[in-house]
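Table S2 (continued). Query chain:
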Amino acid sequence: MVATACASLIVALPSPAPGQDSAGDPDFAVQGEYLGEIDGKPYGAHLVAEGDGKFAIRFYPGGLPGEGWRKTTPSRDGQGTRAGETVAFTAGDWEARLDSEHRLVVRPQGKEEDAGVLSRVERKSPTLGHRPPEDAVVLFDGKDLDQWKDGARITEDGLLREGAVSKPLFQAFHLHVEFRTPFRPKARGQERGNSGFYAQGRYEVQILDSFGLAGLHNECGGIYTVAEPAVNMCFPPLSWQTYDIDFTPAQFGADGKKTANARLTVRHNGVLIHEDVEADHATTAAPLGEGPEPGPVYFQDHGNPVRFRNIWIVPKD
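Corresponding output:
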């Protein structure tokens, strides 16, 4: 992804939106997704809190990821620091301000006329809350841990914690899971809300707070060490997100040798990010190596408070 030249952005801090101050950090009310037009063309933007009043900003020509912007189109990136009631950014030759109504007003640096306005939006996955079909195995509905091995934990408000291994074992399947990454603005890289879904306990689809990042194989939506997502569909931290995954296991001959690789199709927040991608090896940290035997659903414990809910799976013949 190509970065552009930098200039100055001025962003005035808004009051927290209703229900969005739960992280106990004033920066949480500013970070998020913005959508509108600049110079008559659709644009999206991500404001990413990085701790102590510091922010990253990324503008997306065409709209937000998955809704207009594509990974092949360069974004316009910058950094910002809080100064009293404002945050000053550098991002190309634009200036901007964020008003009390959560509108990001953009103008060319040094100009008096506005080039456009982006408003804060909160997207939700179209598959959020989907009910399991009749032939599904309900792994978790917030009531108990009957489908999980010893060591699985449930929160007081009925969410599954990271570090859980299912009792049932599966071959081919369709899986639905909803997950939430924590708000950890001072963390970086693999410490920023890290977990992972392992198909059969072997092949990892990464779970990580990758909001506003490039979209690599080791970021949210990546098939770890295998393939990066077609687009980074990670929502802001503390948003509920969805994976809808179709998995075909690796095939083995009578001699135990592999004859076909495992394959995954992944939709992240309703957007297709992997289509029938081959996974030619198990993830290094996987609890199981490749083999013909069925395997469990596994959610990695990487020491970060990632939460899960509404987990169900439909086995395939």
